[in-house]
């Protein structure tokens, strides 16, 4: 006898700040809720060494904050599935969510899949990945104790990780394509108080090394090229959304277009967090969007599924 497929009111794809908050709200609204996550509860927020702008928490690590989110969602009776969503199909009034070896049905879907680190797309980057080229100093920085390391980028994440690396590295070099850093002033004030060499208006041309990273070639604004000897480079040049599997309207960067209520172009599918088209990408904004998506999905169910 074939096992009956599980059915939910709200299926949330992605367990970052948006997805976990959505799960808390959806479950508390009385909706049968499931949160599907392929890898890491808390998403990229867990990689933040310190968070100093979450209301009520003056200084907390990303992983600690996200574990609080997850625990709250669990206590609100949201269910969890560890799996990767590969496809979504319409099935009468429901959505069929296809995963690896598993399928479920849902009345509504909230897509909160976040984003992944963007590649520089320069020579040697892929060949030396995890052999000196990395995307997470919090994860991999400890391997380079008393070594020379570089951070490539100018936003909050880049500056935070450069500061973090000063705790263990012999020398930290920050490479910024822009004339001015885009990180918050508070973070820049900390950065400038550290022994960090900052090279502005320069871009990486090539990573060089045989078995591991040995050198990095940069090009300055005036066209001059410089070779830097180092042991590791951490890349923070933005993110790309994880939205390839979902067929809804997106902007030119692949981020999902939503209205103020987190509706996508497809009825019954909502989106929230860093996978949507927006200006400010912060834990607090993603959480807000998750709450709005839960409210909108609940309202959709009330209007379209009569008990």
TrEMBL record:
One of its GO terms (molecular function) is oxidoreductase activity. Residues 8-290 form the FAD/NAD(P)-binding domain. Gene3D superfamilies: FAD/NAD(P)-binding domain (3.50.50.60). Keywords: Flavoprotein, Oxidoreductase. InterPro entries: FAD/NAD-bd_sf, FAD/NAD-binding_dom, Ferredoxin-NADP_redctase_2. The keyword Oxidoreductase applies. Signal peptide: none annotated. It comes from the Archaea. The keyword Flavoprotein applies. PANTHER family: THIOREDOXIN REDUCTASE 1-RELATED-RELATED. This is FAD-dependent oxidoreductase. The lineage of its organism: Archaea, Candidatus Iainarchaeota, Candidatus Iainarchaeia, Candidatus Iainarchaeales, Candidatus Iainarchaeaceae.
């Amino acid at each position: 006898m074939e096992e009956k497929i599980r059915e939910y009111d709200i299926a949330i794809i992605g367990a970052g700040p948006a997805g976990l908050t959505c799960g808390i709200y959806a479950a508390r609204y009385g909706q049968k809720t499931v949160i599907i996550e392929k890898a890491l509860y808390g998403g990229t927020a867990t990689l933040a060494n310190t968070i100093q702008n979450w209301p009520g928490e003056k200084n907390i690590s990303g992983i600690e904050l996200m574990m609080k989110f997850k625990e709250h969602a669990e206590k609100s009776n949201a269910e969890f599935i560890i799996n990767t969503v590969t496809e979504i199909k319409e099935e009468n009034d429901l959505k069929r969510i296809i995963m690896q070896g598993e399928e479920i049905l849902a009345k509504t879907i909230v897509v909160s899949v976040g984003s992944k680190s963007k590649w520089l797309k320069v020579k040697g980057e892929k060949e030396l990945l995890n052999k000196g080229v990395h995307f997470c100093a919090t994860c991999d920085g400890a391997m380079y104790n008393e070594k020379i390391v570089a951070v490539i980028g100018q936003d909050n994440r880049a500056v935070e990780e450069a500061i973090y690396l000063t705790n263990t590295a012999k020398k930290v070099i920050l490479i910024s394509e822009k004339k001015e850093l885009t990180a918050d002033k508070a973070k820049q004030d900390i950065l400038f108080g550290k022994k960090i060499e900052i090279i502005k208006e320069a871009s990486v041309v090539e990573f060089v090394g045989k078995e591991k990273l040995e050198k990095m070639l940069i090009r300055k604004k005036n066209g001059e090229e410089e070779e830097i000897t180092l042991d590791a480079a951490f890349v923070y040049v933005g993110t790309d959304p994880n939205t390839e599997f979902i067929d809804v309207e997106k902007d030119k960067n692949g981020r999902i277009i939503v209205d103020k209520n987190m509706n996508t172009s497809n009825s019954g599918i909502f989106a929230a967090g860093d996978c949507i088209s927006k200006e400010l990408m912060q834990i607090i904004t993603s959480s807000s969007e998750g709450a709005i998506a839960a409210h909108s999905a609940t309202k959709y169910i009330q209007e379209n599924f009569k008990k």
